[in-house]
Structure formats: C-alpha cells, structure tokens
Amino acid sequence: MSTSNTNSAISFPSACLSSREADPFAARHHKSLPEALRNESAGMNWSSFEHTYAPANGSFRLGRWSETKCGSGISDFEATLGIGESIRNLGARACGPVAAMTSMLHDVGCSIEILSFHQHEIGHRVATFLLCECGGTRLWAMGIDESCTGSTLRAMISGANRFQSD
After folding, report:
1. Of 1, 8, 66, 130, which has the most beta carbons under 10 Å away?
2. pTM above 0.90?
3. Where are the alpha helices (DSSP H) in 41-141?
4. Pairing of strands 86-94, 74-83
5. CA gap 73, 95 in Å, rounded
6. What is the C-alpha separation between 101 and 36, in angstroms, rounded?
7. Neighbouring residues of 162: CB distance < 8 A, sequence distance ≥ 6
8. Quick one: which of 108, 166, 107 has its CA closest to 132?
9. In whole angstroms, how large is the CA radius of gyration of the chain?
10. Are 132 and 37 in contact (CB under 8 A)?
11. How far, CA to CA in Å, does 125 sit from each of 108, 109, 136, 146, 152?
C-alpha cells in the first residue's frame, strides 16, 4: 500500500495548533502568555488579541503620571485620567504605583483587584498581563510601554476599560 502526500486544507481545533499558533503573543513577540490567558486567547490573531485585552477606545485614558518619594517606602502619586468626556487630576499616597492606581480607580468608581501579574521584556518595551477582578467578574488585561511601571499602569487602564464595556 502506498501513501501520497497531498496538500489538502484541514481545519484543526485550537487545541491541535502549535503553541506559537495558539498563542498570539508568542506568534508576535516569541514569549508565552500566562497559561490561563494563552488558553483563553488560543487561535486569536494579534489584532483581535490587542483589541480584546488592551482596548484603545474605552472610557478611561491615562495622561500624566508622577511620583514624589516621601521616605519610608511611601510616595505621593499624581495622575491625570480621562474618564469619558471629563479630565480628572487624582492623587494617592501609597507604597507603589499599583497601589496608587488601584486607589485612584476606586475613587472614580472602578474598584479592581489584581489577582495575577506577569511581565515580559519585548525589545525596548515591557508587556504586562493582569488578571483583574471587579464585582465578582474576572478578566485579563494587557499594557505595553517602555517601562515596567508604564506597562503596568496601561494594563490597569485596559482592565478598567474592559470592565466598563462588560
């Protein structure tokens, strides 16, 4: 019995795709997503992934961000946030930027909790992936920026925007 090798189009479910094909971040940046996010986004192309996990057109937008160290590991943080049609200048005294942004988002009615935190260096930038929870709903968010802090803040804003659209 002989077999022939034909090039017929066969469709495989995402579970059968190679790990790079199933992971849109790995396909683009050669680094794997956290397993739960990789499973959730399996088979998405980069455009769909970015649109879903880092929405660019949400209610929340991050403008200015600054930190003034107060000593003893505490800093004063200030931010300008666009929220819908308004611009808000917010501040928080906290032990770090994540705690400060969490406080600021809470102050404007978006109480998110970070359940899982992952970062990858991608060239001269950093990608942050957060599993967030708000009101019993959990979802993933992504932010990319030149700094660890910037990518984390962008991921938090992405999470806030995802919760607003749900």
Report:
1. 130
2. no
3. 46-53, 97-107
4. antiparallel
5. 6
6. 24
7. 53, 55, 58, 132, 139, 141
8. 166
9. 19
10. no
11. 29, 30, 32, 4, 12
Q: Summarize pLDDT for 86-110 with one digit per residue, the tens.
A: 999 999 999 999 999 999 999 999 9
SS3 at position 104: helix
Summarised one tens digit per residue, pLDDT across range 21-55 is 589 999 999 999 999 999 999 999 999 999 999 99
Contact 151, 158 (CB under 8 A): no
Which two structure tokens, joined as six digits, stand for 38? Answer: 């990789």
Q: 62: number of CA atoms within 13 Å, CB side?
A: 25
Distances (CA, A) of 160 to 70, 71, 117: 28, 30, 15
How many Cα atoms sit within 13 Å of 92 on the Cβ side? 18
Say how many C-beta atoms besides its own lie within 10 A of residue 52's C-beta. 18
Dihedrals φ, ψ of 27, to 5°?
-65, -35
Buried b (16+ CB within 10 A) or exposed e, 1-30: eeeeeeeeeeeeeeeeeeeeebbbbbbebe
